[in-house]
Amino acid sequence: QVQLVESGGGSVQAGGSLILSCAASGDTYSRYSMGWFRQGPGKEREGVAGITYDGRTSYSDSVMGRFTISKDNAKNTVSLRMNSLKPEDTAMYFCAAKRGVKLLLTLDQYKYWGQGTQVTVSS
Question: Is there a contact between 115 and 5 (Cβ–Cβ < 8 Å)?
Answer without folding.
Answer: yes
